[in-house]
């Protein structure tokens, strides 16, 4: 017989799954260390999946699911774990994808993140963007950075999320977490309202439209510390993606806003740990130094990667991050090679060869 929802969720937690895939006509699948694994048992029927959804979905979202053919929400079966749930139709079949969200928020140190991440979290104003593909751990890193602020400073933190994932409790800071669809209609209006609520720190779950981008940068410009996310794969793509949201006649103004208000971008991917249990983040980190500001203002976006490789202020490209993880024996050379962008550069970084030569050429233009 098909597995019950309670047994499925319990089993997923035991094997430390990151995601659960549910669909009528097939058995559930769980993702463990990046690999999808089928769950033993009979295929789920339409009634099975409808029963799962009836247990998890807030009553008010049933109409949304039918009208939009999809709905996102959170589900907490007990005090140990929460789930981010995306329910949708696929060829008239019901499907769910569930992301496990631990209730315990790991620290920057416990996640094995570079020390520069803590320094970035210590900023008082500006905009910091966490980027990467879906499932790259952006929410986990953001939660660790917000938790660091919460433990360290007396600030007012407002988060706008779709849906709420990690739940924060007041420590030194006061935290308000608002959910799209439940507390606010969308990120843009939530951001407009947040600016009237005495915020020091604002988390915008995702920059989905030009107006949200514009308001976020203006909030940073007026002294707030703004976090947000984008589905981009490195710093250059992040800047290009933001500019692409606006007409070309506004690009100069946007580059000026980015130069003056963007403080850092953190792009990450998850790679398997050497011992085979769990994954660790490999991050490209760009800190907006005067050199980066100059490149933004002069529209020399493609030159940004060279400055990042120079390593100033803790900056690093993916291949440098992978090389360090291999040297520290946290990731195998085989796994890192699979994720490397430039195999020859990665091998240099793996051997501990610096990037001063990469830095010199780009910096020469600023003398």
Can you describe what's shown?
- Helices cover 38% and strands 25% of the residues.
- By secondary structure, the protein is of the alpha/beta class.
- It folds into two domains: 5-102, Beta-Lactamase (2-Layer Sandwich), CATH 3.30.450; 115-366, Rossmann fold.
- Strands 9-8-10-11-7-12-13 form a seven-stranded mixed β-sheet, sandwiched between helices. The chain has a six-stranded antiparallel β-sheet with strand order 3-2-1-6-5-4.
- Helix 9 runs antiparallel to helix 10 and helix 12 packs parallel to helix 14 (343-350).
- The longest helix has 15 residues, at 138-152.
- The model is unreliable at 356-367 (pLDDT under 50).
Features:
Beta-Lactamase, 13 strands, globular, 367 residues, Rossmann fold, six-stranded antiparallel sheet, 2 domains, alpha/beta, seven-stranded mixed sheet
């Amino acid at each position: 017989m098909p597995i019950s929802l309670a047994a499925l969720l319990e089993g997923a937690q035991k094997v430390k799954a990151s995601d659960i895939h549910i669909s009528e006509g097939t058995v559930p699948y769980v993702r463990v260390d990046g690999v999808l694994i089928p769950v033993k048992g009979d295929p789920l029927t339409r009634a099975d999946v409808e029963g799962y959804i009836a247990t998890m979905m807030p009553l008010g979202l049933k109409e949304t699911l039918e009208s939009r053919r999809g709905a996102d929400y959170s589900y907490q079966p007990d005090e140990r774990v929460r789930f981010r749930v995306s329910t949708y139709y696929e060829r008239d079949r019901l499907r769910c994808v569930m992301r496990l969200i631990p209730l315990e928020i790991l620290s920057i140190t416990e996640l094995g993140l570079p020390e520069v991440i803590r320094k970035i979290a210590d900023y008082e104003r500006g905009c910091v963007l966490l980027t990467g593909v879906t499932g790259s751990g952006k929410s986990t890193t953001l939660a660790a950075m917000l938790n660091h602020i919460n433990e360290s400073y007396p600030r007012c933190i407002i988060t706008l999320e779709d849906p709420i994932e990690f739940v924060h409790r007041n420590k030194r800071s006061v935290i308000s977490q608002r959910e799209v669809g439940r507390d606010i209609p969308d990120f843009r209006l939530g951001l407009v309202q947040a600016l009237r609520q005495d915020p020091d720190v604002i988390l915008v779950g995702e920059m989905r439209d030009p107006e949200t981008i514009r308001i976020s940068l203006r909030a940073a410009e007026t002294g707030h510390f703004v976090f947000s996310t984008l589905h981009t794969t490195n710093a250059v793509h992040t800047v290009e993606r933001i500019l692409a949201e606006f007409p070309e006649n506004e690009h100069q103004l946007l580059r000026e806003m980015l130069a003056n208000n963007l403080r850092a971008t953190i792009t990450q991917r998850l790679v398997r740990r050497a011992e085979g249990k769990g994954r660790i983040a490999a991050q490209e980190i760009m800190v907006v130094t005067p050199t980066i500001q100059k490149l933004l203002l002069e529209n020399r976006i493609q030159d940004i990667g060279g400055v990042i490789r120079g390593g100033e202020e803790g900056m690093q490209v993916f291949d440098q991050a992978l090389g360090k993880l291999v040297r520290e024996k946290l990731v195998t050379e085989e796994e890192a090679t699979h994720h490397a962008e430039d195999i020859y550069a990665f091998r240099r970084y793996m051997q501990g060869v610096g990037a001063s030569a990469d830095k010199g050429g780009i910096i020469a233009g600023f003398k």
